[in-house]
Structure formats: structure tokens, C-alpha cells
Specification:
Oligomer: single chain
CATH architecture of the largest domain: Orthogonal Bundle
Mean pLDDT: 92
Helix content: 40-55%
Order of helices and strands: HHHHHEEEHEEHHHH
Distance between the termini: 24 Å
Number of helices: 10
CATH class of the largest domain: Mainly Alpha
Radius of gyration: 18 Å
Number of domains: 2
Shape: globular
Number of strands: 5
Strand order of the largest sheet: 1-2-3
CATH topology of the largest domain: hpI Integrase, Chain A
Largest sheet: 3 strands, antiparallel
């Protein structure tokens, strides 16, 4: 999974899928590390996004969100504040409802920010903690569904607990709104670039060395390696 995530920043989805299938076949038929009928988790390529996406300022994000419907606007604000991928918005849960995967965490994680801890399911099924500002968390809870809904987006199945925009539809909504109000769009993935650069500045201005800040932001974004986070700082 670490290999596939790293490759997902270098190759497109078709190539990444082929490599995943080849590794899966090897694990099943050669090493026996994967049981018959089991599959490796789907990993989404970020190749085009990493090349083309760049940051939005807070003011630009606000203008875009004001041009969206209420449910999509809230998703935009949350994605900006917590550095979420489009599909991760489907998976938002209270930390008490879905525990995060066991991963190393520095004391500097979320340092200097306040809010409510949620979890999301990212690449390779990794469940990580994310911090959502209290005001946005309150708005999110107002949109909690009485019964979680089963949703399929780009062939992947999710259980959605909140009535908010997510996945491909939300991403399209963001692009359209950005084009309307700004005259250009860097894609919804640009919000993760914004989070990365803002957090790096916050942590370094608080006295953390760059390597520590980079490792911290890598953990907050759900990357396996800080080198991957470096791409978001271009």
C-alpha cells in the first residue's frame, strides 16, 4: 500500500490499477500472503492532481463556498480546514464511532489548532484522525443522518453519516463554483495543498524545525511518508 500510494503521485489510475493487480496476483499465487478471493485496497491516483492543483487562499475558498449549495459549501469549508480528499468526506465519523488505525503520532499533531476530533477513511483503508473547527463541527452535526446511507462513488462503496457533499459530485460542484466566481479552478484537491502549506507555516512559525513540521503535516494528511507531502509544497 505504501508503494502504491507513492506510485499514485507518479502514474495515472490505469497504470496504478494494473500494478495493484500484479502485486495482488503475486501475493496470492507466489508468496501466499493474500488469501484466495481477497483483494488489495483500491488506491486512487493523485498524479494529475499533484501536477495541476495549487493553493487557494482563505478568501478565495470563502468566495467559492458562497457560490455553492449549503451542503456542498459546508464540505468545502471542512475540506479546507482539515485537508480532506473528496471521497473522505463520505467517511466522516466521530472518533468514538470509528477508531483510527494505529499509526505513529508526534506531539505536534494538531498543535495550535482547536476543534473536534473525527476520523476519516483514506487511501488503502487507513483510518486517521482529523480536526474540524468547533463551529464547523456544530454545523456538521446538524446534518447528521438518522440512518447512515450506502453510497457508491466511482465504483467504491461508502457508508455516509452526514448529509453533505462528497466525492465526484462535490468535486465537480467545487470546480464549477470556482470557475464562476474566480474565473479559474485548481480543483477541489487544491484545498489539500492549501492545508499543507498553511500548516507548515503555522508549525514553523511556532518554532518547529522543518523536518518535524513536515512529519506532522504528513500524519495529519494521512500520508505514509513525508516525501509525499513535499509534493504539496511545490
Amino acid at each position: 500500500i505504501q508503494y502504491l500510494e507513492a506510485r499514485g503521485l507518479e502514474v495515472g489510475q490505469k497504470t496504478l490499477d494494473m500494478e495493484r493487480q500484479a502485486i495482488q496476483s503475486m501475493l496470492t499465487h507466489v508468496t501466499g500472503k493474500l488469501e484466495q478471493g481477497k483483494t488489495l485496497p483500491y488506491v486512487e491516483s493523485e498524479f494529475k492532481q499533484a501536477l495541476s492543483s495549487r493553493t487557494y487562499t482563505t478568501e478565495q475558498m470563502k468566495l467559492v463556498s458562497e457560490s455553492q449549495t449549503e451542503r456542498n459549501a459546508l464540505s468545502t469549508q471542512i475540506a479546507y480546514a482539515a485537508g480532506l480528499r473528496a471521497h473522505e468526506l463520505y467517511t466522516l465519523s466521530y472518533a468514538s464511532e470509528k477508531q483510527a488505525s494505529e499509526r505513529p503520532a508526534l506531539d505536534s499533531k494538531f498543535q495550535g489548532r482547536e476543534g473536534v476530533i473525527y476520523t476519516v477513511t483514506g487511501k488503502g483503508g487507513l483510518i486517521r484522525e482529523v480536526l474540524i473547527p468547533t463551529q464547523l463541527a456544530s454545523k456538521l452535526e446538524e446534518r447528521r443522518l438518522d440512518t447512515p446511507q450506502k453510497v457508491t462513488d466511482r465504483g467504491v462503496h461508502y457508508e455516509q453519516k452526514y448529509d453533505i457533499g462528497a466525492g465526484h459530485k462535490w468535486s465537480n460542484s467545487y470546480t464549477q463554483a470556482s470557475n464562476r466566481v474566480l474565473g479559474w479552478s485548481r480543483g477541489a484537491h487544491g484545498l489539500r495543498h492549501s492545508y499543507t502549506q498553511e500548516r507548515m507555516n503555522e508549525l514553523q512559525n511556532s518554532g518547529y524545525f522543518r523536518d518535524t513540521a513536515l512529519e506532522t503535516v504528513s500524519q495529519e494528511l494521512g500520508h505514509f511518508r513525508p516525501e509525499i507531502t513535499e509534493i504539496y509544497l511545490r
